[in-house]
Specification:
- The complex is a heterodimer of chains A (about 425) and B (about 450).
- Chain A has about 425 residues and is an alpha/beta fold.
- Chain A contains 13 helices and 18 strands.
- In chain A, helix 5 runs parallel beside helix 6, helix 6 packs across helix 7 and helix 8 packs across helix 10.
- The longest helix of chain A has 16 residues.
- The radius of gyration of chain A is 25 Å and the shape is globular.
- Chain B is globular and about 70 Å long.
- Chain B starts with 11 loop residues before the first helix and ends with a helix.
- Classes of the chains: A alpha/beta (about 425), B alpha/beta (about 450).
- Chains A and B meet through helix 11 of A and helix 2 and helix 8 of B.
Chain lengths: ~425, ~450
């Protein structure tokens, strides 16, 4: 049976699933219900000088029948008194000893203010601190959140202030709204951070009401840019977690688009030790963690991974520069005649959107009939034209109907870098003023 | 109609419930969900399966994007009767039968209901979707106001023709208004749909019977061409004793009663026998049950396997608790004092396969039996209106009495074109629409192709 416990920057978590700092971790009641549901840790909604929020605050995009594919918020940090938050943390810690409460903190960029905040968090019994250098809206206008996290020097400086007094692990939460997140991550590491967490939300406008021309979420006819998250951001998060994993030695808590155990496993595969979830819990409630725990355990058992460490970061070495990829690896598409339903989406996608390597159905090509006796239009791959791009397999609505088969006949691998060396080509051209 | 025993009258609410639409309108959220299921197939099989070739993926995509007006235009430009077709088309054997989802092992996309959703939007909001071309100075008469004529006249009007429809009935719509079970299509909805044709400038002269109120030669003088879309006539008789009794009627005539007057006024027997097992027969037996008839028999010479009604229709009759008498042939109607009291039947066995590929029913002597009924409805198809059609000099008919046409829907009299049931012998609404439109193209070509202007717009 898989052991889901995780050692993370010196603290121990019963499982890698934490609730990320946000609306779902605002109160004692929520934290306790989350622990009862099975969450290993709760990153408390960011504590700082109480703010006043707007109404409304959230917006979402639905893709076809899937609600909240992408989600945005313009909500700020906790609007509750600092004292109340810490009292509640203390109360939760009294009742739940094995689960982690991580205090997310954000105060004005003054050494004294940070020292004071860290002290109060200690007093409350927080297991770790997470420094919110990522919030991209509202707080950044006040010189906090991503205003800090976008500047390596600020990140390093404030991290080091916190480390001067911190007695528990310090996690720096990184914003993706930076040109190169690894430079910010390195700055945090230099400042003495024990871990980083990423990604915070991505700056965004979720959409525009075309009747009123008000962006969403509507605050009395106006809106503001907000933090984008939800299933849609997972690919961005995976890339950034992997980049940071390649760069840093300190542990990572992965955040971004995690709704199921497999999303979490992917974050772990690119280097995260723990994962944090917010939007999915806001969508479905705390009980989603049940299958996260169960599903991840099943997966680990099936693959013989005893602990998270057994597969953590396993995908990282497989993430290479494009120039290192094998140009002689060749695949072509294959359509399973029996499974094909005749929508011909592969044909039109290839014809209009890719490489003109699929021939449409013609009446002589097959006599396949559907259950009511209507013809099924099975298209055909033109193998010599197929570049193996995957598009047809991606648009095909039937699982395993279009597969990519290998046809390179074992030719020796050859990367672009190798090829350009062979051709005596030099490094890629750089812009030049000459 | 004089009946020995009539069915007990129901409450007004009960009639409404019994004849409420079996396929209620899709609510917006459900329409969004259903339209999102559509794969947007290339060269879509549903479009190919539709006799009017409505671009189904295109109109469904427009529903998904909230472009309901564009969706309705997409539908109605291919089929001006998209409203009634969305309700009465046998979609299971047309667009939805061809849906790739079936091969995927899922339910077909509900194309009919989505179509209705889009067209209802245009009708309910009184949106004008088409702007006819300026007048081309030519005028056409359409005889009959059923689906074929409506489709033909709408096309011609769009291309700048001055079109007048002549129809003997009180209201336009033909069988849509008078001949389809009320729970599938209410007369009011069928009539409302004809407003789309009126909006295009087509003039309707209802209660005007050609051959009586206006002669064919008058039409020939006043119009450049004439389209005949008169459909079929009365139900075939069966030539068995007692057919002339008051309690015996034809299916179309019975259905019409349910469409033109309040349900409580429609006379229906307490026990009803319907002869025939086609889709119209289903309309009859279900209507009879819903009007309050206690026992309704459906009598068919062949077996369940040879039943001409679609599976979906058969299910309707089963749900309405109709009694099916398979391999049963009526012999004569029994009566007392001129009132129907029963139907004598005989069992059949199925003999050799006939020219149409169906086994011939042969009566089995000595198997006669009687059922007690108060009313008998013949649902054995409509006969062509040959007498009427012979009023056109030089108009040739086929052996079965339908109008003979060439590939351009032109009759043997060059000024006359024809389409719909009067040429095909009785098919679906959507077939009549497709033929009416094809006839419009044939007619336009013959008169000099005004539709080229529409193409270039």
């Amino acid at each position: 049976m898989a052991d889901l416990t995780v050692r993370f920057a010196g603290i121990s978590s019963t499982n890698p699933f934490w609730l990320a700092s946000g609306p779902a971790t605002n109160t004692m009641g929520q934290a306790m219900r989350a622990f009862d549901a099975g969450w290993g840790g709760v990153v408390w909604k960011t504590i700082g000088e109480p703010i006043v929020n707007t109404s409304s605050r959230y917006g979402a995009i639905d893709i076809a029948n899937v609600k909240m594919m992408g989600f945005t918020n313009i909500e700020l940090i906790s609007d509750r008194p600092i004292d109340l938050n810490f009292r509640e943390i203390a109360e939760v810690k009294k009742r739940y000893t094995r689960q982690l409460v991580i205090a997310s903190l954000m105060v004005e960029s003054k050494r004294k203010s940070w020292h004071e905040m860290v002290r109060r968090a200690h007093d409350a019994g927080a297991d770790a601190l997470e420094l919110n250098f990522g919030c991209p809206h509202g707080m950044s206008e006040r010189g906090m959140g991503s205003a800090v996290g976008q500047v390596p020097e600020y990140t390093e400086m404030i991290t080091s202030w916190v480390k001067e007094v911190a007695k528990v692990p310090v996690i720096v939460k990184l914003t993706p709204n930076a040109t190169d997140i690894t430079r910010i991550a390195q700055a945090a590491e230099r400042g003495g951070a024990d871990a980083v967490s990423l990604i915070n939300t991505i700056n965004s406008l979720i959409g525009i009401d075309l009747e009123t021309f008000t962006p969403r979420p509507d605050v009395g006819g106006k809106s503001s840019h907000g933090g984008y998250c939800g299933p849609a951001v997972k690919p961005i998060a995976l890339h950034l977690v992997a980049s940071v994993a390649k760069t840093l030695k300190i542990p990572i808590s992965g955040i971004g688009g995690i709704g199921y155990w497999n999303d979490a496993a992917e974050h772990i595969a690119v280097g995260a030790s723990t994962v944090q979830v917010c939007t999915a819990a806001m969508h479905y409630g705390f009980r989603i963690v049940e299958d996260m725990i169960d599903g991840l355990s099943q997966y680990m058992d099936a693959h013989g991974y005893r602990t998270i460490e057994d597969f953590r970061g396993r995908a990282v070495p497989n993430i290479e520069d494009w120039g290192d990829l094998d140009l002689n690896y060749k695949i072509v598409a294959e359509i399973n005649h029996d499974l094909c339903i005749g929508c011909q989406l592969c044909y039109v996608a290839c014809e209009d959107g890719a490489h003109q390597a699929i021939a449409p159905h013609n009446t002589s090509s097959n006599g396949k009939k559907n259950p009511r006796g209507f013809g099924v239009h099975v298209p055909q791959i033109i193998e010599e034209e197929c570049v193996g791009c995957n598009l047809c397999a991606l648009v095909c609505p039937v699982e395993n109907c279009i597969t990519m088969k290998r046809v390179d006949a074992g030719r020796e691998s050859m990367s672009w870098k190798q090829r350009s060396q062979d051709n005596q080509a030099c490094s890629p051209p750089m812009p030049s003023g000459d | 109609m004089h009946l020995r025993e009539i069915a007990s009258k129901l409450s007004a609410e009960q009639y409404e419930k019994n004849f409420s639409e079996i396929e209620p309108a899709l609510p917006p959220r459900q329409a969004a969900i259903e339209s999102a299921r559509c794969l947007y197939c290339f060269d879509a099989p549903c479009t190919a399966a539709c006799p009017t070739h409505i671009d189904v993926p295109a109109f469904i995509k427009k529903i998904l994007t909230g472009n309901l007006q564009g969706s309705a235009r997409e539908i109605l430009s291919a089929n001006i009767l998209g409203h009634s077709c969305g309700r009465v088309c046998r979609t299971e054997v047309l667009c939805e039968g061809a849906c790739v989802m079936l091969e995927k092992g899922e339910e077909a996309i509900e194309i009919g209901r989505l179509q209705r959703y889009a067209v209802d939007y245009a009708l309910n909001n009184n949106i004008r979707l088409f702007q006819p071309l300026p007048s081309n100075g030519k005028c056409v008469a359409c005889v009959g106001a059923g689906p074929a004529s409506l489709a033909c006249s709408a096309e011609l009007a769009k291309w700048g023709y001055d079109v007048t429809i002549f129809d003997r009935k009180e209201n336009p719509g033909g069988l849509n208004t008078y001949g389809i079970a009320g729970y599938k299509l209410r007369a009011a909805d069928a009539i409302r749909e004809t407003e789309l044709v009126q909006q295009l400038g087509v003039k309707f002269r209802q209660r005007t019977e050609v051959g009586r109120d206006i002669s064919f030669s008058q039409l020939e003088q006043q119009f450049d061409a004439i389209f005949i879309g008169v459909g079929l006539g009365e139900t075939w008789s069966l030539d068995f004793p007692g057919e002339e009794l008051g309690g015996v009627c034809g299916a179309i005539e019975f259905i019409e009663q349910t469409k033109i007057q309040p349900f409580e006024k429609v006379e229906v027997g307490r026990r009803v026998a319907c002869i025939g097992a086609g889709n119209t027969a289903i309309d009859v037996v279900t209507a009879a049950r819903r009007l309050g008839a206690e026992i309704v028999y459906m009598i068919y010479r062949r077996s369940e396997l040879e039943m001409p009604a679609f599976a979906y229709e058969y299910e309707l009759a089963k749900k309405d608790a109709v009694t099916f008498l398979w391999q049963t042939q009526p012999v004569r109607v029994l009566s007392s004092n001129g009132l129907v009291t029963g139907l004598e039947c005989i069992r059949t066995e199925l003999g050799p396969v006939d020219a149409k590929g169906r086994r011939t029913p042969l009566p089995v002597p000595g198997t006669e039996f009687t059922i007690e009924v108060d009313m008998v409805v013949r649902a054995v198809g409509q006969q062509p209106i040959t007498e009427f059609l012979r009023g056109v000099k030089g108009l040739e008919l086929n052996e079965n009495g339908t109008v003979r046409i060439n590939d351009h829907y032109q009759t043997s009299h060059p000024k006359y074109f024809a389409g719909g049931d009067c040429t095909n012998g009785g098919k679906e609404v959507v077939d009549a629409v497709a033929e009416g439109m094809a006839a419009a193209r044939g007619l336009d070509t013959w008169l000099g192709s005004s539709r080229d202007g529409a193409r270039n717009r």
